[in-house]
Records
---
Amino acid sequence: MGATDRLRVLERMVGDTAARYLVDLAVVVVWVVAATVVFRTAGWPVTAYYLVVFGGVLGYSLLIDPWARVESRERE
């Protein structure tokens, strides 16, 4: 494997990781905004809001397995 091949693999891994972070960020932002709208509209207690937001983010992080290595695409 030459230097240019290693650079291509690194670029793919960085791109895949960046895309995954953006998806994670989008999911968390949507969850927090949705919970905020529902709780403010319904007038439910703030403590319950924090539990729902924290539980949702925790559940998402456990579901996605954040420590798994991002698989690089197959080599050409």
Note: The chain has a mean pLDDT of 84.
---
Amino acid sequence: MTKFGRMDNKQLNFATAIIHKVLSRNPTTAIAIVLAPHLTSEKVLGGHRGEIRRIEDKLDGRSLANMLITLRMESPPSSKRVSLNMFGWLVWAEGSWDENVFKECELAQLRSPRATISWLPETSYIVPISEKDGLPHASEGMRSLSDVQEAAQLLAGKDVPIQLLQSVLSKTKLKQAAVVNATPYDCYLEKVCLEYHKDHDVSLAHLSVSLSPSLVDYVQKVLAMELLQAWKKGDHCMGEVRAYNPTQPPTDSEIDVASYNFKVVQVTVDNRKVGWDRFQVKLPAEVRASYYRDIVYGAEWRALMKDFDQRFDKSANPAAEIPRAPEPEKGDVEQLNWDGEPATIEDLMHTYQLEAKAAGRWGGTTLFLVESKTRSGKKENITEGQEYKLFLGAHMEIEITTEEIALSHGTSRFKACSKVADLLRKKRSDEIARLAECKFTNDLEDVVLEVQQNKSMVDTDRCTIRKMLQEFESEGFLDVTINGHELVRPNAHDGNSAY
């Protein structure tokens, strides 16, 4: 919590929500470390003690047990008036401590890291800044920092995360661990996680989440620069990657194509030419077809293929190399004869029993849901097991295309899971009969998002749930929850209210 400088309720709720999610899903293999902020919030009574009590109440409200820990600091410079003891909490899910793998760790036993922690010089304090399409940089200098910005850097530097990680991972015999940082700021914790395996037998994976997209972007860019510099020095953690070579080999040198591990492209050599012109680069047809007809990524993929051909393979004929979509075999779809069906709404009502109707997606149209059998009991033009037929009635002259969505949910609202559960518990059959199930099997299902534009609601283009969530994250909405429920409803004419 120190990285907030001065912590408000929104930041506290976000950080404790992240802690609760991680600990509730991994009760015996996860713990959290919370450090108390140095500055008290303006609306909190009781000073620093009131701030500590506020955090403890929030942890208790999320069923998170905790113990108080202390960070023992080295003597500060004579001009720095700060406490030599910094307070925090070791947090775990209630009822899981006896089986928690971190129960015997040094931090839990001593309530403090073994060694004292050094202060970062004030001249190294920063304010992280991230600009679009620009390199990350920091506004430095003690004189330009406010009290909140200075408080956010009070426990800055690598010594704090190193001492805490060592005291937590000791006696656990873990070889791999994951670190989630809910308060990214100056990238010191991220840098420590990146290099921790060099001096210890534990490899760390790391994830930073924040309410501020600019802070996450700053941390990401700083880590990218760290990895780039480590790669150039040959001291990196990226596994087997080619060594950095700032100079390209001369064009007349011998290059053995067989020594390169091409995973996607096909490379052939034409010895009649010289230099780099000898090499011809192509993409296999199955690679070109990967996302060629994809609903979400198709346009972007085709543009990428076009750019590749312009650079490397100008003789390519992309259309000829794309495998044709398989045609459905005869017998997959039963062809029905609709010649004898009603041609007017009046004939439709006279022939079939109406079950429901709703406004169509096109103006001046209505959708009619009727029983599959006629009023006289005949069943014609139906497939096996078909119970209903759907007709579209037009009240004016309109043009209907096959490129648009024909069905609509009509006038309805999504109900939260808690309200649906309450209806099921009370067995309110009259309201349950009006519920419609909304269920997705995975994140590749297509959805249409309704958004507000110019004080009215409009539908976005169709995309997958995964694409929608990716767009949410790119806009800074990191904490997105999708609720769902399952419901088994009785038949429309069944008076039985069993579920």
Note: Residues 487-499 have pLDDT under 50 and may be disordered.
---
Amino acid sequence: MTGVSSELPVIRPDGNRRRHQERLARERRRRRKRRRARLRRLRLLRTLLSLRFWTRTGMVFAGLAATAFWAKFALVYDIPDYAQQGVLTGVRAYVTVKPWWFGPPLFDLGAYGPPASEPDLWEANPWQRMIAQLGRYQDVVVHPEIVWVEKSP
């Protein structure tokens, strides 16, 4: 019985070889299509995860940059005419390095001007009065380490 396996007819579910091969080919195409779809989904998931990672990283970096700006830099704006002297001549706003850490990051010098109710109190020396009102923060005006300047038009 050595030749029995070659003599026995192969029983195929479809009845003949051609239909069986066509069915196998369809199954292979279906498996390949499913595998490609699964790979596309995985690639899309990786892209989304990567996008989410870079978005979070960018937000953390922006937060750190904002904290660093708040910690060591000050924006001085609305500079009155009497304060525009020396390096501040013709300057509308500037960014300076603060000599202290974590103080106020914005200085509106127009707010340190004479009050509308008592403008004649400031007539003598408005510069000295503004410096006195700034108190310990006067270095951003008296000795600025300017990083960026916006000139008046």
Note: Residues 17-72 form the longest helix (56 residues).
